[in-house]
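Summary of Year 1 activities. Much of the first year was spent building the evaluation harness for sequence design. The harness presents a backbone, in tokenized form, and records the residue chosen at every position. We chose the following record to illustrate the format because it has been used consistently in internal testing since the harness was completed.
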């Protein structure tokens, strides 16, 4: 039996379906992610990874046959669960990315060993950056941008000239935070901030067009392969474009709400658009005190926006704002990112998961952190000072919690799958009531004196987290 529901009913169904759009996480398979791909289940990870590489080889061979044959090859299903990335969580994909990086580094090291034996050179298994804190951007630029691609996926080691920190993980974390903070500083004018969202987008009128934007992409890639979380307040559209997606009006509304909402208001207007808005296919903007115009289509200054062509106008406006006006900046950024991250493993991630991979989990659940914390050197879960510590921490503001996390771990962001996955240790560090708390950020290890009272603990902890940066005396 056939039923004609009519166009009105179909529209209602579509609207309802849009409201019930499934979330990305709804497709994650808990059994696969929490059992098969659990961090301790390395044998299965290795098996799945090898099968995935085999699947990729078969796919390439099938694509080659389809390019030269009249008939389509027989149907085939990939063997590895990695070939079905929609069931994998962002955390699982991050572990796969690390395995892939290790494999690539292993292959690169074997090549370097052979070259070193043939040429009498020395093998360096690390990407070593020697940085002057006073010239951090230029030193990083000179060493990273011209670095051979084979070195970019090596484990990072950073040496701050004149400082005695040995990089076991903490120095590289601080380096990443300091250099990215410098590059995002308004003084560089590489990015512009939206007043409503505080998100950063490429500045179309910046003087920095090439290497500095490439450096940003390189730093993000190197951070990914060293499991370093960065605080980049970029709108989602940047990650979508890295995944090959075209920007939409919804992306503009998220990145630049006022402009996006104005365009949406025009699109949804039920009256005469030409008479009411008086717009043409042209964009006008200010550059260093002068008004500049750009035609969105050929002869755009003479073509009015009407009810019939308003969708085209908005599409062209969005494309110009999020792509055309910043093409040089974005392409340089993408070049740097792909120099490190180009490959099959990064393709497993959606745009949303890619943001989590770069920036970490924005939710700081300190209740979860308390449950997984270990204690050492005289402290136990029931120690009075430990109870005071958590009472103080749970009373912190969100900003203070971020400062504490940065002080203890080197980053103010949670790992990709939350604070419950963090290995966090609090050790007793004597009973000197004048000593400030200290930390080994490379090991997520907080050294806390037994102050005796909650009031002294709170005072010393606040002082420490607000004055923490640098290694050695400055």
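For this record, the design step produced the sequence shown next.
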């Amino acid at each position: 039996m056939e039923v004609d529901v009519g166009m009105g009913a179909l529209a209602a169904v579509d609207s309802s379906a849009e409201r019930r759009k499934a979330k990305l996480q709804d497709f994650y398979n808990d059994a696969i992610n929490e059992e098969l791909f659990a961090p301790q289940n390395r044998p299965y990870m290795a098996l799945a990874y090898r099968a995935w590489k085999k699947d990729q080889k078969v796919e390439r061979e099938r694509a080659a046959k389809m390019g030269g044959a009249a008939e389509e090859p027989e149907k085939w299903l990939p063997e590895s669960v990695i070939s079905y990335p929609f069931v994998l969580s962002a955390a699982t994909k991050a572990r796969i990315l690390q395995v892939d990086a290790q494999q690539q580094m292993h292959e690169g090291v074997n090549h370097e060993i052979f070259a070193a034996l043939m040429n009498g050179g020395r093998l360096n298994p690390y990407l070593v950056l020697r940085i002057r804190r006073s010239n951090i951007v230029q030193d990083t630029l000179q060493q990273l941008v011209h670095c051979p691609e084979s070195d970019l996926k090596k484990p990072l080691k950073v040496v701050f000239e004149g400082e005695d920190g040995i990089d076991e993980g903490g120095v590289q974390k601080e380096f990443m935070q300091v250099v990215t903070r410098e590059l995002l500083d308004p003084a560089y004018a590489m990015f512009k901030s939206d007043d409503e969202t505080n998100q950063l987008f490429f500045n179309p009128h910046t003087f920095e067009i090439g290497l500095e934007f490439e450096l940003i992409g390189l730093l993000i890639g190197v951070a990914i392969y060293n499991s370093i979380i960065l605080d980049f307040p970029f709108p989602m559209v940047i990650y979508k474009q890295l995944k090959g997606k075209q920007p939409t009006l919804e992306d503009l509304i998220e990145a630049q709400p006022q402009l996006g909402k104005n365009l949406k208001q025009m699109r949804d207007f039920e009256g005469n658009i030409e008479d009411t808005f008086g717009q043409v296919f042209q964009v006008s903007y200010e550059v260093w005190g002068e008004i500049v115009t750009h035609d969105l289509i050929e002869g755009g200054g003479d073509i009015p926006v009407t009810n019939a062509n308003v969708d085209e106008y908005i599409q062209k406006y969005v494309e110009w704002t999020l792509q055309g006006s910043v093409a040089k900046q974005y392409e340089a950024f993408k070049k740097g990112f792909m120099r490190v991250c180009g490959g099959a493993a990064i393709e497993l991630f959606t745009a949303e998961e890619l943001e989590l991979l770069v920036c970490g989990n924005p939710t700081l659940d300190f209740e979860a952190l308390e449950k997984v914390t270990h204690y050492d050197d005289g402290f136990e879960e029931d120690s009075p000072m430990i109870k005071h510590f958590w009472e103080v921490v749970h009373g912190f503001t969100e900003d203070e919690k971020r400062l504490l996390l940065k002080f203890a771990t080197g980053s103010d962001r949670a790992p990709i799958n939350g604070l419950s996955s963090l290995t966090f240790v609090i050790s007793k560090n004597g009973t000197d009531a004048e000593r400030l708390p200290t930390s080994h950020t490379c090991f997520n290890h907080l050294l806390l004196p037994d102050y005796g009272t909650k009031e002294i603990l709170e005072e010393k902890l606040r002082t420490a987290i607000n004055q923490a940066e640098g290694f050695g005396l400055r």
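DSSP finds 19 helices and ten strands in the chain. Quantitative recovery figures across the full test set are reported in Table 2.
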